[in-house]
């Protein structure tokens, strides 16, 4: 099982949800020297492609390529092989794709990792943090509590050889109980105290997320759309240290 980073500053991931490389670079310039781990999602990757990953790696950043792959096992394997070759540090697949797909994804990563390199962390997406209980039950048609589905997906992901899952911080204690303390949790839906929730329904503050046991926090618009991204970023890091009183690096 992959070990998590010990310094909290390596555990807060900035979501670069912007449409161009230029905007990603100007966002990073405003946060120069502060951010260590970034996330490239579908908006930026589909627009800019592998070039954006090369640019981020040249800046010395770690990169979570968040493409939420969900396809037949053979295609998932190929996608992961390409992402490992690209130098991603973390990638993800939907746990709803099932065990065979997740296991194939892991094999693809192993095949694509250059000799002597480190395999990217493979994370399963459980239930999107924008999905409410009512939407899951009434629209998607999955009965029961969101937490039950999340725990089921997490156990499935662990059995398939994944390193962890994406989930709401509120679900972290249950996931750790079901899948083990070392099974990683990557948690979006982070809002500094008093910030706008946007389209996320299950949100927590950075301090609360760490207190609940999150291994990695993903934070986007609360920083990138702020008038002063640097001030918000620094307050997030400051509040995070306050949450545990440990790992000050
Ligand atoms: O702007 P905000 O902080 O809400 O961004 C959260 C990021 O995390 C987005 O890039 C979104 O795609 C991603 N994400 C999520 N919920 C998941 C998986 C990923 O919000 N379950």
Which descriptor suits the 3D outline? globular
What is the CA–CA distance across the termini?
Answer: 23 Å
Rg calculated over all Cα atoms = 17 Å
In the CATH hierarchy, the third-tier topology is known as TIM Barrel
CATH class: Alpha Beta
Biggest pleated sheet: 8 strands, parallel, barrel
CATH superfamily: Aldolase class I
What ligands are attached or bound here?
Answer: cytidine-5'-monophosphate
* DSSP E strands, number: 8
Per DSSP, the total helix count is: 11
* Average pLDDT level: 92
What portion of residues is helical? 40-55%
The structural class is alpha/beta
Q: Percent of residues in beta strands? A: 5-15%
Along the chain, the helix and strand elements come as EHEHHEHEHEHHEHEHEHH
Name given to the CATH architecture? Alpha-Beta Barrel
Strand order within the widest beta sheet:
1-2-3-4-5-6-7-8
């Amino acid at each position: 099982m992959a070990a998590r980073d010990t310094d909290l500053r390596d555990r807060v991931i900035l979501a670069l949800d912007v449409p161009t490389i230029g905007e990603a670079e100007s966002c990073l310039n405003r946060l120069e020297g502060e951010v260590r781990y970034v996330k490239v999602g579908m908006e930026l990757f589909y627009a800019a492609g592998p070039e954006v990953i090369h640019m981020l790696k040249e800046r010395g950043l770690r990169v979570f390529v968040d493409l939420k792959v969900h396809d037949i096992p053979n295609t998932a394997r190929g996608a992961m092989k390409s992402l490992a070759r690209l130098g991603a540090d973390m990638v993800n697949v939907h746990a709803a794709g099932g065990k065979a797909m997740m296991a194939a994804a892991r094999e693809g990563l192993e095949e694509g990792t250059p000799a002597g390199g480190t395999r990217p962390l493979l994370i399963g997406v459980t239930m999107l943090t924008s999905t409410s209980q009512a939407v899951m039950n009434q629209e998607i048609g999955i009965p029961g509590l969101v937490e039950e589905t999340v725990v089921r997906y997490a156990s499935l992901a662990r059995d398939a050889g994944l390193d962890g899952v994406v989930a709401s911080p509120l679900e972290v204690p249950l996931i750790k109980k079901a899948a083990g303390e070392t099974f990683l949790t990557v948690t979006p839906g982070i809002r500094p105290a008093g910030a706008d929730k946007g389209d996320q329904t299950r949100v927590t503050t950075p301090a609360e997320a760490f207190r609940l046991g999150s291994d990695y926090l993903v934070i986007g618009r609360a920083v990138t759309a702020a008038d002063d991204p640097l001030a918000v970023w620094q307050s997030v890091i400051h509040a995070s240290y306050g949450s545990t009183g440990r790992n000050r690096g």
